[in-house]
Design goal:
With 137 residues, this protein is mostly helical. It has two domains: 84 residues, 2-Layer Sandwich (Double Stranded RNA Binding Domain), CATH 3.30.160.20; 33 residues. The protein is 53% helix and 12% strand. It has five helices and three strands. Strands 1-2-3 form a three-stranded antiparallel sheet, with helices on one face. A hairpin with a 4-residue loop joins strand 2 and strand 3.
Length: 137
């Protein structure tokens, strides 16, 4: 578990991204909520969960990925940047693109595609069989 706050360089990069998307710190509404879920008493007693909202676009993000408040604040800002980029610029977020890639990989092939793939494999194996050294008979 990484409890260290993000580096100054990462914070600067995040601020630059927020500026490029037109998000200012002034318009972000940030509140801290008590944690929930597994982790025992410590999680339930400390307010390390960050709720960040951007009212003009109606976007809200909740982040409780680590026990560190500083790290959760940073990650919440990253998530809000992704959502704004998706909503305003219409670009797909990296996370959503990865999810789609995995979905495509897991999707079942059509019968025609499967038959073609198996035929190609069969042809390849026959070609490789011809490469074998001739038998002494």
């Amino acid at each position: 578990m990484d409890a260290n706050p993000p580096s100054v360089r990462k914070e600067e990069l995040l601020r630059a991204r927020m500026a490029s998307l037109g998000i200012s710190e002034d318009e972000l509404v940030e509140s801290f909520v008590r944690g929930f879920g597994p982790g025992g008493q410590k999680v339930n007693k400390t307010s390390s969960c960050v709720r960040l909202s951007l009212p003009r676009l109606g976007i809200e993000v909740k982040c409780q990925q680590s026990r560190s408040l500083a790290l959760n604040r940073y990650r919440a800002r990253e998530e809000i940047c992704e959502k704004v980029a998706e909503a305003v610029a219409g670009e797909k977020s990296r996370r959503r693109a990865e999810e789609e890639k995995i979905r495509r990989q897991k999707r079942r092939r059509s019968r025609r595609a499967k038959a073609k793939m198996l035929a190609d494999k069969r042809a390849n194996s026959e070609k490789k069989a011809l490469r074998k050294a001739p038998s002494p008979e």
